């Protein structure tokens, strides 16, 4: 797994699970199911990752599980919930994991705290981040990991893409090399970029792409690519005039009320015809 040979790791685990089930070693089974969940998650197979985690929880409920292992289960639960964009539930699991690791002075506590802060940022509660970091528990873990999340929270609170990019550059090891943080921050960056672009183009009917790029302080080709993607995703109505290097924005097309009304009339006529057919069938009978 550490070598990222996930398929090979799963093949090894499948044989191991059968042997351990014969031994009926529940604690070892919890370890294996949890590891299997992490492997499926790494392969982006969320349904199987959830199934393995459920199996780990079921096995854990039948025995006493050491606090560190319970913390690992909660941490994995939080990661899977965050992947499904259920950040509030994920936060509660990360909090449980943090409390378990913090009591044991386990180094994984800082990662649980980092993911807690991530959840706050993702639900647009970036203002809470400073409060959590300055709390009694948070102060124990001050360092580059928490500084990185604070920088992201500040950028999000100010809706500043430039500050966001500076944070990603300054804390590359803490943000870019953690696959879970990186995936969610990429999604957050895209959302922030779209919101900023929509706000900037709102007053215009026709505007140079270079002018938008200058306002948002990003490269022209990057802005052009994002605008074309937003047009295809129907985030706004418009077209790119690449010859002139301009964005042309159309007024939102107004839906014609006659079509829904016509469909409703035809539906009602159909119901009348059906009822008349049933009535005539009874008379003929």
TrEMBL record:
InterPro entries: 26S_Proteasome/COP9_Components, PCI_dom, Rpn6_C_helix, WH_DNA-bd_sf. This is 26S proteasome non-ATPase regulatory subunit 11. GO terms for biological process: protein catabolic process. Keywords: Proteasome. Pfam families: PCI, RPN6_C_helix. PANTHER family: 26S PROTEASOME NON-ATPASE REGULATORY SUBUNIT 11/COP9 SIGNALOSOME COMPLEX SUBUNIT 2. GO terms for cellular component: proteasome complex. Belongs to the proteasome subunit S9 family. It comes from Hibiscus syriacus (Rose of Sharon). Residues 86-254 form the PCI domain.
